[in-house]
Every structure is written in structure tokens, then in C-alpha cells.
Design brief:
The protein is mainly alpha-helical. The chain has a domain of 132 residues. Helices cover 77% and strands 0% of the residues. It is built from 25 helices and no strands. α7 packs across α10 and α23 packs parallel to α25. The longest helix is centred in the N-terminal third of the chain and has 83 residues.
């Protein structure tokens, strides 16, 4: 143990200053085995062990102060957080109340109109109905919900009529577009995917035609630049000849038509039918097939007509004339079309001639150029072949096909536009079907003609009614939202009150807990004092080392030493306990008194080893605690102690000798057996009660003094050899000097004595004379009773 104690002392004395709490804690933790409850150091080591143990106790106190400081800081932070939360909750409550008022104002503005409208509807539906006015917010909400459902039902009904009209218009428009597409040889179905597919095909076809047109226009330009004038002249002559031949045939056909034996009105009818026919070849073929079937030998109707109708032959002859007339008309139409086509080509060739010689080459176009032109035309018409080896004819065919492609692209653009409209209509119909869950085919959803007319006629009025309903629905929704918001705010305010109450309770508890803790500044001062005491105690270790003469083989001798050591530990613990109490109050002392006390406690802890000195030292600390807790003017008692014991390390016994050599436990003392002692003591107790009423501090001091006197009297009766009986004149203690001062009329004598003592000291140039020795001075009643009690105790002890 000696080596370990020496190592611990070395670590403490060699550690850097200022000492760090963590470092000191770590050092003592490393040597914690030295201070276990059952550890008993050898006698030569005891003083050093106690000194180290006292330092360890101070370090533990320091750690406790730091912990308390941390707890206080945590409490303050928590209180600040709770106060901030309280402020935020108040702000939130004020905000919610303002919102509540705002919502209530809005509700009061919009609700009456809705109530009147709903009541009007109810009265119109049932004139004898009894109407009631809702008074609570819940009743208003129920009424608004009922009216809201009614408005939505009316709105859905009118909207459904609008949807029916929109679908009908869409179906009609679709049918119209389908008819136009059909007239352009594009057949569509009710399936929207077919329209999309056709649109993609048409779009690709249009792109292909545009590209082919660009290629044909390019080859046309190249071919036109490579045609010779001779070819143009020959072509003009050839076309003129063809036109003459066709004109001659037309004249022949005209004569045949005039010579036809049909009546004039039949001719006009046949002319009109033929002119109106869109596909004239098909029209002639149908008429011819019809005539052949009527004259067929396998037609039973023909045999029936032959046998029953006497005019059947005349009818057949008339039909044959009509068919012949139509054929002549068709031949005339074909020749006229061919003649017009030749004239267009002739005009085009003449235009080529007018262009001048510089435009064309003398040599004919190359075979490669012609082949390219024929290949492009074959892409358009797979069966195309050049009728004659004529470049001008090829050029005319190119121009005709370019014009044909232009018409095709125009038609195709129209088809694509119509298909796009059709796709948009299908998309609109699908959206309406999906949104309003409309099941059924087009015929089922299509209203009748009468219903459609009614829907169209009432469209404007219906739209106005929908607008009115929409406004009412929106107003209802706003009111219901405001009611829901009001309910939420009321609920939040109700919960907020509970939470605020809980918060106030928590905050009150935290503040109460904080009030029980020592203030941060006081803890800081205590920590600084603890640091100073530890520094002084560590410095005092050098003195302990000088008296440390433990031999190498010396050990604890017997159990008696162990018992004595245990008592010494108890003494040190009690001294440390009172030291902690005093340290909690010492921040109120002047700095010099604080410094003096720190040295005093170190000296007491270092020197108190026996029971009598322990009792005296304990009385010193208890009295110091009382004087700090109940201070007199300018700490006169403490100043007197400091004067009596200026260097505690050397003078501590002078202060300790003032105190009793027995315990100061708060126990009930037995009554005195000696009547004279008992009567004197009772007189003192009566005097203490009177004094306490007028002067509480002096009364409390007298009470403490009486306790000591009572204990001395008991010792005088029971153990007249007790050391305490050698010195029990406690009035020499400076703290009891106040009991020797007058507080009434005799205070004049005291002042007079002090004045005389001062004057004599000035003339004799000596130390101050005790003014209490003058003949005119009279002691206080308390002092006289105490003196009488002391004399009685001495008499009893002897």
C-alpha cells in the first residue's frame, strides 16, 4: 500500500495545474482499490491515506457540483424550450381563433341564402311541410349536406342531357364524315382503331405520292429540255389529224342520235340519266345486262310476258332503242373526252413551239432519260406503256400524270383531314363514355329525333341552369369546408387547452425543480472553491510525506487499531459533511474569510484523530455554519475567529479549545438530579424563552449554549473526571459575546464604560482596558445566570 500511496501522491503533485476534473477523476479511479470500505491502511500510512481520501472526497464533490450544474443547464434549456412552446401554442391559439372568426363570418354570409333556397325547394315540393331553422353547427352541416346532394342530383341530370346531346351531335357528325369518306371510296367502321389505321396508311400514301410527284416533275423538266423542235412539229401535225378524224366520227354519231326513233321526252330522260351517272361505263354495262336478262330464254318472266302481254314485242323494241341510244351517247362522250384530251395536248405542244428554238435541243432525248420517265410512270400505273416512240407524247403523259397525282394528293389530304376529325370525334366519345360510364352501342345512346330536337331547343336554358347549380354547389362546398374547418379548429383548440394545461404543469414542475437546484453562478463559485481546496490539499501532501516514516515490513498490529481507524474515517466523513454544507453558503463570505476557512478545514481534517478533538472540531464547523447562515453585522464572530486563529495550520488548536469536548447530537437530555443545578438551569431556560421572543438570534445562541451547559452539568453529576469539566467557561467564545451586551437601559453603562476605557488607554498608552471591570458596570441577567450556573457546576464536581 505504501508504494501505491506514494505513486498516487506523485501523480497528484506532478499533474499540471490548473487541475482538470477528468484527469483527477481518472487518477483516483485508477487507485480506487485503496479507498474501498474494508481497506485499513497501516498506522504510519494513516495520515497520508486520510489526506488523500479527503482530496478524493473533494474531487467527488467537484464532480457532483458539475453534475448539478449540468442538470441545472439542462433544466434551463428544457424550461426555455417549454416556454417557447407555450408562446408558440398561444400564438397558434390566437391564429386559430382569428381563423375561426373569419370562417364564421363567411358562413354567416353564404349560409342564409342556401337555407332560403333549400326551404323554397321543399315548400314547392310539399307546400304543407313544416320548416325548421337549424341552430347548431351540426344541424347546419346536415342541412347543407342534404341540399348539396339534391343540387348534385339536379346537376347530374342536366349534365347527362348535355352529354346525350354531345354524343348525338358527335354521332351525326361522324355519320356525315363517314358518308363523305365513302363518296371518296374510303370505307370506315365504328371501330376507332380502323380510322387510326386508315389515317396512318393514308399519311404514308400521301408522302409516297408527294415524293413521286417531285420525281416526275424533275424528270419532266429534264425531258422537256431534251425534246427537239422537229419532234414537236410532227406531234402537232399528228394530233391535228387525230382531232379531224374524231370530229368526223362525232358528226356521224350526231346524225345517228338525231335519226334515233325515240320520242323527245325519252331522249331528254336518257340524256339526264347518263349525265348524272358517276361511273358511266358501269351505268352502260348495267343497262345492257338488264336488257339481255329481259330477252333471255332462261328468264321465266320473259316467257310469261311473251305469252300474256301483247305489247311485249313493242316494249322489247323500245328497250333496245334506249340501249342503242345510250351506247351512242357513251361513244359520243368517249370521243368528246378523247378530242378534248388531244386538244389539251395540242395546246401544250404549241406552247412548246412558242417557247423558241433556244429551249430545246436539235437532237432527240436520250434513251436513258426516256427509260427513267417510263419507269416512274410505271410506278404510278404498272400497266403503262408508251403508245408511240414519241418523246413529246411521253412528256404529255408525264404532265397528265403529274396533274393526276396533284388531284390524288388533294383528295388524299381531304381524306386525312376527315379521318383526323373522325379520330377526334371517336376520342371525344370515348372520353364521355369513360367519364360518365356510358354503356351501350351508338343506336342505344342515340336519342330519338324528337328528343334530339328538344335537347337542341333547351340547350341554352339548360346551360344557364347548370351554371346556377354550379354556383350553388360551389357555395355549398365552401360552406361545408368552412364548417369542417370550424370543427377542426374547435377540436384543435380543445386539445390545445389540454396540452397547454399539461405544459403549464410540466413547466411549473420544471421551475420548481430548478428552484431547488443551486444557481449556476453559485455552483460555479463552489467549483472554484473546490478547486482551490484541492490545490491546497495537494500542496499539503508534501508535509504529510515529511512525517511519513513507514518501515518496509510494518503492518497493522491488532483489531483495536482497526476499530480506531474506523472511528477516524467516521470523524473525517462527518467533518466533510459539514464542510460541504458550509461550502454551499461560503460564497456569501468575503474572499479573505473564504481563503481562511479553506485553510482551517484542511488543518482540521489533517489533525483530528481522537474523539475529544473531533467533538471540538465538529462544534467549530457547526458554529461556523450557523454564523454564515445567520450572519451578524460584518461577520464579527468570524472576524474574531480569524483574529484568534490567523494561520490555521499553526493556530487551529486555539480555535478548537473554545469548544466543548462532547457530542452535539440532537438528543433529549436527562433532568439534573441536584436541585440547585436544576433550579439554576430552569432559570436559564426561562431567560432563553424571553430573550428569543425579543431577539431571535441571541435567543438561539443562548439555546445552543444552554445545551452545552446542561451536558456539562450531567457530566458533573455522573463523571466528575471527564476532561470537559476542566474547561467549560464557554462565554470566552466570541460568538457568545452578544449575550454579555445590554439591550435596554443599562446600555448607557456599557457605553460609559467603553468611553472610560478608551480615555484611560489614550493617557497610559497601553492596550485597551476591559470596560467590564469598572465598578459602575453591571452584567446582563443572562451572563449572571450563566456565571451562577458555572459556579454551581464547579461546586457539584468537587
Amino acid at each position: 500500500m505504501k508504494d501505491e500511496l506514494m505513486d498516487l501522491v506523485h501523480e497528484l503533485t506532478s499533474s499540471a495545474q490548473p487541475h482538470n476534473l477528468e484527469q483527477l477523476t481518472f487518477v483516483f479511479h485508477s487507485y480506487r482499490e485503496l479507498f474501498q470500505p474494508l481497506v485499513v491502511p497501516p498506522k504510519p500510512c494513516a495520515s497520508l491515506w486520510h489526506a488523500l481520501r479527503n482530496i478524493r472526497s473533494q474531487v467527488i464533490d467537484w464532480q457532483q457540483l458539475v453534475n448539478e450544474q449540468n442538470i441545472e443547464m439542462a433544466l434551463r434549456e428544457e424550461i426555455h424550450r417549454l416556454e417557447q412552446e407555450q408562446i408558440n401554442r398561444k400564438k397558434r391559439a390566437e391564429f386559430l381563433k382569428a381563423k375561426l372568426e373569419e370562417y364564421q363570418v363567411h358562413l354567416n354570409e353564404c349560409y342564409p341564402a342556401l337555407l332560403r333556397a333549400y326551404n323554397s325547394y321543399l315548400v314547392a315540393k310539399e307546400p304543407t311541410i313544416a320548416l325548421s331553422t337549424p341552430t347548431t353547427l351540426s344541424q347546419q352541416q346536415n342541412l347543407l349536406l342534404a341540399y348539396f346532394e339534391l343540387l348534385n342530383h339536379q346537376h347530374r341530370t342536366l349534365t347527362h342531357e348535355n352529354i346525350s346531346l354531345q354524343l348525338a351531335e358527335a354521332f351525326i357528325k361522324r355519320k356525315e364524315i363517314s358518308g363523305r369518306l365513302k363518296s371518296m371510296a374510303v370505307i370506315t367502321s365504328d371501330d376507332s382503331f380502323d380510322s387510326i389505321k386508315l389515317f396512318k396508311i393514308g399519311h404514308n400514301k400521301l408522302a409516297s405520292l408527294n415524293q413521286l410527284k417531285m420525281d416526275l416533275e424533275q424528270i419532266q423538266q429534264e425531258l422537256a429540255e431534251n425534246i427537239s423542235l422537229q419532234e414537236i412539229k410532227e406531234d402537232i401535225e399528228h394530233k391535228k389529224q387525230q382531232i379531224k378524224t374524231i370530229n368526223a366520227e362525232l358528226l356521224s354519231l350526231e346524225l345517228q342520235l338525231k335519226e334515233c326513233q325515240l320520242p323527245e321526252d325519252e331522249r331528254h330522260r336518257l340524256n339526264s340519266e347518263y349525265a348524272k351517272a358517276p361511273h358511266k361505263e358501269q351505268f352502260i354495262a348495267e343497262k345492257t345486262q338488264e336488257l339481255s336478262w329481259q330477252n333471255s330464254v332462261i328468264n321465266p318472266l320473259s316467257w310469261f310476258e311473251w305469252s300474256t302481254n301483247s305489247n311485249f314485242m313493242q316494249k322489247v323494241h323500245s328497250q333496245q332503242l334506249e340501249n342503242h341510244y345510250l351506247n351512242l351517247l357513251h361513244q359520243e362522250h368517249e370521243l368528246t373526252t378523247q378530242a378534248n384530251h388531244l386538244r389539251e395536248q395540242l395546246l401544250r405542244s404549241q406552247d412548246f413551239m412558242i417557247a423558241g428554238d433556244s429551249t430545246f435541243k436539235i437532237e432527240p432525248a436520250s434513251k436513258v432519260l426516256r427509260a427513267r420517265a417510263i419507269k416512274l410512270l410505271a410506278e404510278l400505273e404498272p400497266q403503262y406503256s408508251l403508245k408511240a416512240d414519241n418523246n413529246l407524247l411521253l412528256l404529255s403523259d408525264l404532265i397528265e400524270r403529274i396533274g393526276f397525282i396533284s388531284k390524288q394528293t388533294d383528295n388524299l389530304e381531304t381524306v386525312l383531314r376527315l379521318l383526323e376529325e373522325l379520330i377526334t370525334i371517336d376520342k371525344t366519345v370515348l372520353e364521355l363514355r369513360t367519364k360518365y360510364t356510358l354503356i351501350g352501342d351508338m343506336d342505344e345512346l342515340m336519342p330519338s329525333t324528337t328528343e334530339l330536337a328538344q335537347l337542341r331547343e333547351s340547350a341554352e336554358a339548360r346551360q344557364q341552369e347548370i351554371s346556377v347549380l354550379t354556383e350553388k354547389i360551389q357555395s355549398c362546398e365552401q360552406c361545408l369546408q368552412k364548417i369542417a374547418s370550424i370543427n377542426e379548429i374547435n377540436l384543435e383548440l380543445k386539445d390545445g387547452k389540454k396540452q397547454a394545461s399539461t405544459l403549464r404543469s410540466t413547466l411549473r414542475a420544471k421551475r420548481s425543480e430548478l428552484a431547488k437546484t443551486v444557481a449556476y453562478s453559485q455552483n460555479h463559485l463552489k467549483i472554484e472553491q473546490a478547486k482551490q481546496v484541492i490545490v491546497q490539499q495537494i500542496n499539503e501532501l508534501q508535509d504529510c510525506l515529511q512525517t511519513f516514516t513507514l518501515k518496509a515490513n510494518e503492518t497493522l498490529a491488532d483489531s483495536e487499531s482497526s476499530s480506531s481507524f474506523t472511528k477516524t474515517v467516521i470523524y473525517q466523513d462527518n467533518l466533510h459533511f459539514w464542510n460541504r454544507l458550509i461550502s454551499n453558503l461560503s460564497s456569501t463570505l468575503p474572499s479573505d474569510l473564504q481563503h481562511w476557512y479553506q485553510h482551517l478545514i484542511i488543518s482540521l481534517q489533517a489533525n483530528i484523530r481522537d474523539e475529544l478533538r473531533y467533538h471540538q472540531a465538529l462544534h467549530v464547523l457547526q458554529d461556523l455554519f450557523f454564523e454564515i447562515q445567520n450572519p451578524d453585522q460584518d461577520f464579527l464572530v468570524l472576524r474574531a475567529y480569524q483574529k484568534l486563529c490567523p494561520v490555521p495550520k499553526q493556530d487551529w488548536q486555539r480555535l478548537v479549545n473554545l469548544k466543548p469536548m462532547f457530542s452535539s447530537d440532537d438528543q433529549t437530555l436527562a433532568e439534573l438530579r441536584t436541585p440547585s443545578l436544576n433550579s439554576k438551569l430552569r432559570a436559564l431556560y426561562e431567560q432563553q424563552k424571553k430573550l428569543f421572543k425579543k431577539h431571535p438570534r441571541e435567543g438561539e445562541l443562548l439555546k445552543q449554549l444552554l445545551k452545552h451547559i446542561h451536558q456539562v452539568a450531567i457530566l458533573a453529576e455522573n463523571d466528575n473526571n471527564h476532561p470537559a469539566l476542566q474547561h467549560f467557561h464557554f462565554m470566552s467564545d466570541p460568538r457568545y459575546q452578544c449575550l454579555q451586551r445590554h439591550r435596554g437601559f443599562y446600555r448607557i453603562c456599557e457605553w460609559l464604560g467603553q468611553l472610560c476605557a478608551t480615555i484611560i488607554s489614550l493617557f497610559k498608552n497601553e492596550s485597551p482596558v476591559d470596560y467590564r471591570q469598572f465598578f459602575f458596570f453591571k452584567s446582563t441577567r443572562t451572563e449572571r445566570l450563566i456565571e451562577e450556573m458555572n459556579q454551581e457546576i464547579i461546586h457539584c464536581a468537587t
